[in-house]
Amino acid sequence: MQYSLGIDAGGTYTDAVIVRSSDRKIIDANKALTTYPDLLQGIENAIDGLDGKYLREVELVSVSTTLATNTILEQTGYPVGLILVGKHTLHASTPIREFVVVEGGHNLDGTEDERLDTEAVKDYILKVKDRVSAFAVSSYFSVRNPAHEIKVKELISELTGLPVVCGHELSQDLGAYERGVTAYLNAQLLPIASHFIDSIRSDISKRGIDAKLMMLKCDGSVIGIEEAMAKPIESIFSGPAASLMGASFLAGDDTCSVIDVGGTSTDVSLIDSGFPELVDTGAVVGGWHTKVKAIRMETSAMGGDSHVWIKNREVNIGPRRVIPLCLAAVRYPGFIDLLRSGRTPSRVQLGENIQPTKFFVRTGKQSAGLSGYDKDIFEIIGNEPVSVNDIFWKLGKPVSPDRIDSLIQKRLVQAIGFTPTDALHVLGEYTGWDVEASMVGAKLLARLTPMDEYELCREIKKEVAINMALSLMGFMFHGVEKAEIEKILRGDYFSQFKVNVPVVLLGGPVKAYVEELGELIDAEIIVPEYSAVGNAVGALVGKGVKRFEILIRSFYEKSQRSILVFSQDGRKKFGNHQEAMKYAMELGNKLVLDYMVDSGLEYDDIEIDVKREDITMDEDAGVPVETKLTFMGVGVPKA
């Protein structure tokens, strides 16, 4: 009997599932807390909870991970030198520190615009080679002619031997700077991805698993592990992509919308006829606009572990994630006593970091570079939770919440606080951790509001449901102001929003929100079995999908009409459109098949669809002046 193993390393939990290959039935599943900064420990813990007799027969392992996204958001990527070829203008505020702009580049027809300044390229390479781990290269219109990018790559390899990422290797879309950003981020991630994948390989090998290893991309498709190591940028947002694919599989419906309630955020997306809706303009992550094709999604900073805090007798939820009180009580013995004995701040002091239920503890990350006031505060915060009041008495002077906030932003300190997960514990709708700690916290916070602890928790639960509905309708009514949608959701009308596709809920205790969500929207709401590990399922059931675009354009050179074909293989000239079409069709099919086979798929499992778009002029007797061919290959990985 053959089995497959799916793994998702999410922001709060790491999930693992075993699926029987013959009928795709889920055989076993497990959850473990995600471990930072080393994700591997959480993955090992998740796999350890699975039945070993199935693990020995696993022949396919597929992974989705937050690693690339977190690295970009936390700005912890490796140093990279960026070489921009052509008429680039970078804003003075660009966060890219190591870059150079040199003469060169091509025009729209792939003709050389300026000669490549190889001496300037060599000077820059030699100048920075000892302080970067890789290089990224982007040239003007390299999607029409990558010759200058290829030449720069050759020079870097000759002079340094360091890895090089070219823009045309990652995207065939116009936009030289955005391709450069994509190459730059990808180069930052190369050592991190290599270490992560090598660790996964080592772990499954140690368990006696001899399996094909794949990874889920941010467009919901899977790729072979070698491709994943070469293009780790394509795994950004693979978590939301995994939730979408997993929800569709678990619900048995290839057209549905998905609300994934995680610990940190709520993500909404849509799959139609088995294919996710994509953002054609490219994914945006951490303020960077990339050329990576990713699923379109609506994200809000409210999840099960969002911080609930009181100010001016009003309830606030998020945007920061904290360790729930119920989990802290399990993790730190004696925490409930600390919670009970804590001082309630005056109402004028209350803020996000000053709450009767707010505590702080170290993350384990090294604190190099701290000095002065920040260092004093950090030394007081240890491996056991402390409150602001505790810090005040040990420091001997008032504590600035902003300084604590700075330590949190640097990920040196993790906050503990009341959360929607705690509210569900109080209401008895989810009891995975310590109910007593949640109850104590609810009573402390309720004193700061006009409500008792149960009314407070019902109010929190209602707000989470409204946020789910708002995220869903914001996604559906793309372009409509969220404030107008929220006004309708919160209003008392004889009408409500209707959703014409099933709404699948994923996440730990999402079943608790079905009734409240059903009062806000008219929809078929589905909470499938194994919804708590839907992302791990999604990592495993994604299809192999690859798209290539080839452009055929007419142009005139000395009154002589020629045909140019542009592809990732470069620029090729033909005498007539028929010859160009024949070449383009053969090349497109070859590119798809080669990619899919390299990703671990068999020829017999691959289907290729070709879409053709023509632009014609009457005076050209029906011969297109431009033809765009889009090749899409689809295959299902098999163990």
Automatic annotation (TrEMBL):
InterPro entries noted in UniProt: ATPase_NBD (IPR043129), Hydant_A_N (IPR008040), Hydantoinase_A (IPR002821), Oxoprolinase-like (IPR045079)
Q: Where is the Hydantoinase A/oxoprolinase domain?
A: 179-320
- Limits of the Hydantoinase/oxoprolinase N-terminal domain: 5-158
Quote a single Gene Ontology cellular component term.
cytosol
GO molecular function annotation: 5-oxoprolinase (ATP-hydrolyzing) activity
- Pfam families, sorted: Hydant_A_N (PF05378), Hydantoinase_A (PF01968)
One of its GO biological process terms is:
glutathione metabolic process
Q: What is the recorded name of this protein?
A: Hydantoinase/oxoprolinase family protein
> What is the species listed in this Swiss-Prot or TrEMBL entry?
Methanolobus zinderi
